[in-house]
């Protein structure tokens, strides 16, 4: 528990700007605990990138890292942590101040900063699985194809219109892409799941949702030792819009062109033409080959 007798050291990794309410809670916490906080800088090579701050925090003996941001910042922190030897008593907390907070939602952490601090103070720990694709770790999702392309456009919309909520920028991007063109890809999956088909997208998730509002794998669990895969076949534009709407409620699985799977071992995914892909909302350059793995019960998180 937090308090005068707590011997845990807390490192806050914050995506700027530092919100006044967040600063107030941190300073209040600092009165009775050993607390350090740093603002991240862009660029993976920067000493103050989220990844490097996380690596340094582990080496300096901090037993808890509190990530103040969204899924993207959490992904950077996870990639730093997973490259280090993780102490047995180490845990991660989240204050969901980002534009996409899907994993925090899966942990039961409220968006309200004060309430989120209440969850952190409870120190209730949950052991969760971690995914890995092409030497990059992901905590919430990996997807390729149409939705990764949407994510790329959503990021550009969000940069241009920063006042828009992340959910709206993603929705606008999806509508624009559906109206313009729905691409499909020749995809082969080898491993626990075997198929070779023309698909619009493949989404592999640890938690039920991604993109803020889409419950793409509604039955997913972050601690069951499995990843969930959703594939969608080519559909007409009207049906794509309907499927998009149903996905916000997790009811798209009733569409015949939507299929889901569970897997607990590695998969190899081959794309005939290179495709956009993303991990935890961060879009990567198009590639043709992906190796997906699950690292079961790898990290402890503070949960609600």
Give the ordered list of helices and strands: EHEHEHEHHEEEHHEEEEHEEE
CATH architecture of the largest domain: Sandwich
Overall average residue pLDDT: 89
Shape: globular
What gap, in angstroms, lies between the N and C termini?
A: 14 Å
DSSP summary, beta strand count:
14
How many domains would you count in the coordinates? 2
What's the Cα radius of gyration?
A: 19 Å
**β-sheet strand percentage:** 25-35%
* Sheet with most strands: 10 strands, antiparallel
Briefly note the structural class of the backbone: alpha+beta
The unreliable regions are 1-5
The CATH class of the largest domain = Mainly Beta
Q: Enumerate how many helices there are, as a single number.
A: 8
Approximate helicity band: 25-40%
What do we call the CATH topology of the largest domain?
A: Tumour Suppressor Smad4
Short description:
The protein has 304 residues and is of the alpha+beta class. It has helices spanning 20-30, 50-59, 71-81, 102-106, 113-122, 146-160, 166-180, 237-247; strands at residues 9-14, 34-39, 64-69, 91-96, 125-133, 136-138, 141-145, 185-191, 195-199, 201-205, 227-232, 258-263, 267-279, 282-302. It has two domains: 9-130, Rossmann fold (3-Layer(aba) Sandwich), CATH 3.40.50; 138-297, Sandwich (Tumour Suppressor Smad4).
């Amino acid at each position: 528990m937090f308090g005068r007798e707590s011997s845990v050291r807390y490192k806050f990794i914050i995506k700027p700007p530092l919100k006044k309410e967040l600063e107030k809670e941190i300073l209040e916490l600092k009165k009775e605990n050993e607390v350090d906080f740093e603002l991240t800088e862009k660029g993976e090579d920067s000493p103050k990138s989220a990844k490097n701050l996380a690596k340094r925090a582990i080496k300096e003996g901090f037993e808890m890292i509190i990530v103040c941001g969204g899924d993207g910042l959490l992904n950077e922190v996870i990639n730093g942590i997973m490259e280090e030897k993780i102490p047995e008593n180490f845990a991660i907390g989240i204050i969901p101040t980002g534009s996409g907070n899907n994993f925090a939602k899966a942990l039961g952490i409220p968006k309200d900063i004060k309430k989120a601090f209440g969850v952190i103070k409870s120190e209730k720990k949950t052991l969760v699985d971690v995914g890995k694709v092409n030497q990059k770790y992901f905590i919430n999702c990996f997807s390729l194809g149409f939705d990764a392309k949407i994510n790329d456009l959503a990021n550009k919309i969000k940069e241009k219109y920063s006042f828009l909520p992340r959910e709206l920028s993603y929705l606008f991007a999806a509508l624009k892409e559906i109206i313009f063109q729905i691409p499909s890809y020749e995809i082969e999956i080898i491993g626990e799941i075997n198929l070779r088909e023309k698909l619009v997208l493949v989404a592999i998730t640890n938690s039920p949702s991604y993109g803020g509002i889409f419950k793409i794998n509604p039955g997913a669990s972050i601690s069951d030792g499995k990843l969930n895969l959703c594939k969608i076949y080519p559909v007409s534009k009207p049906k794509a819009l309907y499927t998009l709407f149903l996905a916000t409620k997790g009811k798209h699985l009733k569409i015949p062109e939507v299929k889901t799977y569970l897997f607990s071992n590695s998969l190899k995914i081959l794309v005939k033409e290179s495709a956009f892909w993303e991990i935890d909302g961060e879009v990567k350059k198009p590639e043709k080959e992906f190796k997906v793995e699950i690292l079961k019960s790898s990290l402890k998180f503070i949960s609600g």
